[in-house]
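Below is a filled-in request sheet from our internal design queue. Each sheet records the structural input a requester submitted and the sequence that came back. We keep these sheets so that new team members can see what a complete request looks like end to end.

REQUESTER: design group, bay 2
PRIORITY: normal
MODE: inverse folding
CHAIN LENGTH: 491
BACKBONE (tokenized):
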């Protein structure tokens, strides 16, 4: 073991010298003993967005949290180095958030996919202890074997536990159970100093809260205790179409106001034929719905609520699809619900802003729009929501561009699209106080504005848990500089 340690330290020293050098020594796989450091891989220098391709100098495929700790402890002893380190989950970021230009990328998928389940008795909670590199789909598949399921999901489940907990993890269950970061009991984290810490709301709570929604800035999540619930035997899944935005949002607000009766609520804008059929999950071909989308000069748009109710009585696991436009079944409760849930008209303003900037016939993809209740969010986490209203809306523009050089979106066209989206985000921020989820801010001042009053707390937490600013370079929030090193070392 001692020999291995010495060889690891020597290897790390070679690595650091390589990283600090103006020359790139790393040309081929190197033997870093138990740490298995590799030269850059094509996956480590790209992501889902395929907009940025930043090559790291090396890649770590850890076998345990101890591997990550060893590397970070070593790096945090080198105050003059500029080496940074980024955790990469499934790489489903859009703007290079999981990349580390000339730094080290830690591929979290290489951690053993451990999952241990605990079924709570009467009145107790059920949970799973999982590795930070496990995918949500893997957790769901294993927990279903025990008749259990995570309470709060993302729409798409091929994402990594550590990756979504670094953001928030939102979907149609957020109104009921809160985002995924509100459904975690305990974390194991490797801080920027290399310490392995088990934290929870009652132990090292500040680290726990910092890491949740922390954009990978304070520590690397190597293990998480995720709340589970009984999986329903049957789900009634309803889609209701609207041509009136105010009735659409009114019904959505009604549904989220009765979380005891409803288990899932989402909604989206149907802009054109393409958005109607782009998702076979949202609109199976058998749907008996042929809307008139109007003309280019006079477009007509529609709205769709999708909600689900769990049924724990039935043994039959078939999902029932509502096939035709329908009204939510709980209308009789509307008057009562409206009394305690008053949403501002910001969602309508956002819709107008979007329609002002986007031409319905040109957009490919979906625009999600659905509300959830604010009291399901823990304001101690690093996630900022911006709203002080009782409820808030999430608006997601899920848009893609064809990269084909012949008939697709050129570099110039892509930059135009990105600029247009930035304008929408900036205008929504300035006019409506909206915050960008999965944010990407080109400048540190943009981040300062994003965090608003929470900025001081964010910077203070960074100084405590990652004083040399080794972690999370891909987000571009607090770049590693000599000033940071001087501040950390008090000189
Ligand atoms: P990566 O892209 O690998 O990493 C992203 C960031 O997380 C990096 O900054 C990295 O440092 C940090 N990170 C990764 N792993 C760890 C770790 N173990 N510890 C600490 N920090 C870590 N989001 C939703 O909320 N709801 C959705 O329904 C949803 N659907 C999506 C569908 C698609 C097709 C895509 C592409 C994205 C979707 N997202 C959704 C966004 C998604 O949650 C984020 O992109 C998330 O970061 C993806 O996780 P990942 O493992 O791929 O992260």
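RETURNED SEQUENCE:
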């Amino acid at each position: 073991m001692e020999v291995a340690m010495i060889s690891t330290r020597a290897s790390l020293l070679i690595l650091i010298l390589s990283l600090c050098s103006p020359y790139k020594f790393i040309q081929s796989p190197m033997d870093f003993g138990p740490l298995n450091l590799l030269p850059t891989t094509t996956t480590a220098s790209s992501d889902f967005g395929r907009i940025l391709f930043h090559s790291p100098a090396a890649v770590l495929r850890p076998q345990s949290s101890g591997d990550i700790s060893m590397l970070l402890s070593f790096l945090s002893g080198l105050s003059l180095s500029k080496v940074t380190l980024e955790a990469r989950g499934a790489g489903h970021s859009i703007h290079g958030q999981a990349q580390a230009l000339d730094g080290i990328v830690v591929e979290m998928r290489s951690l053993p996919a451990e999952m241990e389940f605990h079924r709570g008795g009467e009145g107790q909670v059920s949970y799973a202890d999982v590795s930070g590199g496990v995918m949500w789909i893997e957790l769901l598949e294993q927990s279903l074997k025990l008749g259990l399921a995570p309470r709060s999901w993302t729409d798409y489940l091929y994402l990594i536990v550590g990756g979504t907990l670094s953001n928030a993890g939102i979907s149609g269950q957020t109104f009921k159970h809160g985002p995924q970061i509100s459904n975690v009991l305990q974390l194991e984290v490797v801080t920027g100093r290399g310490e392995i810490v088990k934290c929870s709301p009652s132990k090292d709570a500040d680290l726990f809260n910092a890491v949740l929604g922390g954009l990978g800035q304070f520590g690397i999540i190597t293990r998480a205790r995720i709340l589970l619930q009984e999986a329903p035997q049957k789900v009634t899944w309803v889609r209701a179409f609207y041509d009136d935005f105010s009735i659409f949002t009114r019904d959505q607000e009604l549904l989220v106001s009765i979380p005891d009766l409803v288990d899932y609520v989402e909604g989206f804008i149907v802009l054109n034929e393409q958005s109607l059929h782009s998702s076979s999950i949202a609109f199976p071909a058998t749907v008996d719905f042929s809307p008139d989308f109007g003309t280019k000069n006079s477009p007509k748009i529609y709205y769709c609520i999708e909600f689900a109710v769990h049924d724990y009585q039935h043994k039959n696991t078939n999902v029932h699809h509502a096939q035709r436009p329908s009204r939510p079944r709980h209308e009789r409760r509307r008057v009562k619900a409206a009394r305690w849930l008053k949403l501002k008209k910001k969602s309508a303003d956002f819709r107008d802003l979007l329609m002002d900037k986007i031409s319905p016939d040109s957009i490919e993809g979906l625009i999600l729009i659905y509300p959830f209740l604010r009291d399901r969010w823990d304001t101690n986490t690093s996630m900022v929501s911006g709203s002080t209203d009782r409820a808030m809306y999430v608006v997601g523009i899920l848009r893609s561009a064809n990269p084909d050089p012949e008939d697709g979106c050129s570099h110039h066209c892509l930059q135009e699209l990105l600029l247009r989206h930035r304008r929408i985000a900036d205008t929504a921020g300035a006019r409506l106080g909206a915050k960008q989820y999965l944010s990407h801010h080109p400048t540190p001042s943009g981040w300062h504005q994003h965090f608003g009053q929470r900025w001081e707390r964010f910077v203070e937490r960074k100084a405590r848990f990652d004083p040399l600013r080794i972690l999370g370079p891909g987000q571009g929030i607090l770049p590693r500089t000599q000033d940071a090193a001087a501040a950390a070392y008090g000189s």
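SHEET NOTES:
- Residues 2-110 form a domain with the Uridine Diphospho-n-acetylenolpyruvylglucosamine Reductase; domain 2 fold (CATH 3.30.43.10).
- The chain has three domains: 2-110, 115-230, 235-432.
FILED BY: M.R.
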